[in-house]
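Handout, page 2. Input:
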Amino acid sequence: MNDNDHLVLDIADRFYLAPGSREQAIRDELGLSPVAFFQRLNRLLDNPTAAAEFPELVNRLRRVRARRLRQRRSAA
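Output:
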């Protein structure tokens, strides 16, 4: 994992109060669009190295992803 991967996980772990502040942090700190950020984050969640380095964060984000996927499937 490189420094940008660590930054992606750090941004995903932060709590944002103001609407749009996460998207602004993604653009300012990574120079990515929010869509590109979440694509990269999803790849990291499936990466065993990320899971080994940040097990609590990766497992929490995996649970959130799985819950949202279940909600989308049940709504369809």
